[in-house]
Amino acid sequence: MSESPDPVARIEAAGLRLAEARAEIGKRIVGQEEVVALALTTILSGGHALLVGVPGLAKTRLVSTLGTVLGLDNNRIQFTPDLMPADILGSEVLETGADGSRAFKFIEGPIFTRLLMADEINRASPRTQSALLQAMQETAVTVAGQHRDLARPFHVLATQNPIEQEGTYPLPEAQLDRFLLQIDVDYPSRDEEREILLATTGAEEAEAAAVFSAAELIELQQLVRQMPVGERVVEAILTLVRSARPDGPEAHAAAAERLAFGPGPRAAQALMLAVRARALLAGRLAPSVEDVAALAPAAMEHRMALTFAARAEGATIRSVIDEILADQALEAAA
After folding, report:
1. What is the full DSSP assignment across 77-106?
2. What is the mean pLDDT of each run of 10 residues along the chain (334 residues)?
3. What is the residue-wise DSSP string for 300-321?
4. Which long-range contacts (CB under 8 A, 24 or more apart) does 20-24 make?
5. Number of domains forming the structure of the chain
6. Which CATH number characterizes residue 297's domain?
7. Which residues form a coiled coil (predicted)?
């Protein structure tokens, strides 16, 4: 990364490097441009993402490719009902030395990495889920009374299967709130699926190269926080989030009628960071209200819940967000 004191030059240079990173990711991830953009937005914002999609949509491949391109070591944990917190965090074992002396040695768990894929996080018990989510919030773990810091940057990309719910432990609302964005991973188009078939069933597969190092990524995350945000964008974020609170004084009619609860201040914080990161990805110097509209579903959907009556009527959270955006005259950028 350039050390130029000129913020405009730094943003322009970062935009070029990020375009290079997206090209490298595209060598291994066919299509899914929006998913890749949202995953990069999450990491540039310094947050964690919840990937929601059925199995087989290259979520694991995406995480490993992001780790390679961004210069981050990465681990994967397959969550199961019998997974214990120590399986994630690590544990102390008693070792006997050559002289017969005994001492406890800490064996690090897979959470001691920079990019962690938590596969099917809702299959683990609430106790195990909370161990991971505490680390996400504090970037540290406590094992046997010892406080241990995690590597920085530290990001979790967790996955959930939206269809199969038997034998799962849905994440409570307070824990969902710790994910900066929810990223919906849909099926590829016919042309994309054709390209996937040709690219992944041959004798060789394309490999991605590193574009950033962990230290350079931290610089990018700091640059995101330094980007200016116009008053119009700030007001759009505030109005959007406050309109989605059914019991609030600024509640939109759709929210008041259909929502059990709305997004808290973390939703506004997530949008403030994410719109900057989205602008940086596009090589722009500052975010716009179009960025707010484009990121609103990813930042808000997992922080809201429908009433029982609204669910019975077939309403969706996305439709509520769309109505609020329409009344605010915000349109997502194409």
Report:
1. EE--TT--HHHHHEEEEEEE-TTS-EEEEE
2. 68 90 90 91 95 84 92 91 90 80 84 93 88 86 85 92 71 87 91 85 80 93 93 95 92 93 94 96 93 95 93 92 86 44
3. HGGG-EE-HHHHHTT--HHHHH
4. 20/211, 21/69, 21/70, 21/211, 21/212, 22/281, 24/65, 24/68, 24/69, 24/208, 24/209, 24/211
5. 1
6. 1.10.8.80
7. none
By CB neighbour count within 10 A (0-12 exposed, 13-18 middle, 19+ buried), where does 176 fall?
Answer: middle
Q: What is the pLDDT of residue 7?
A: 77
CB 300 within 8 A of CB 264: no
Q: Which two tokens stand for residue 45?
A: 């914002």
Determine the Cα–Cα distance for residues 108 and 272; give it in Å rounded to an integer.
34
Distances (CA, A) of 62 to 27, 67, 74, 76: 11, 9, 11, 12
The b/e string for 96-106 (b: 16+ C-beta within 10 A; e otherwise) is eeeeeeeeeee
pLDDT at site 129? 87
With respect to residue 332, please indicate whether it lies within any of the assigned structural domains.
yes
Structural element, H or E, at residue 117: strand 115-119
Structure tokens at 265: 């201040």
Q: Is residue 175 part of a domain?
A: no
Residue 326 in domain: yes
**3-class secondary-structure state, position 75:** strand
Q: What length is written for the chain?
A: 334
pLDDT at 137: 86
Check residue 223 and give its pLDDT: 94
Distance from C-alpha of 84 to C-alpha of 82, rounded to nearest angstrom: 6
Residue among 247, 266, 250, 249 nearest 258 (CA): 247
Residue-number span of the structural domain to which 252 is assigned: 227-334
Inter-CA distances, 69 with 107, 211, 213, 215, 260, Å: 28, 5, 8, 13, 41
Distance separating alpha carbons of residues 54 and 300, to the nearest angstrom: 21
Q: Give me the amino acid identity at 137.
A: Q
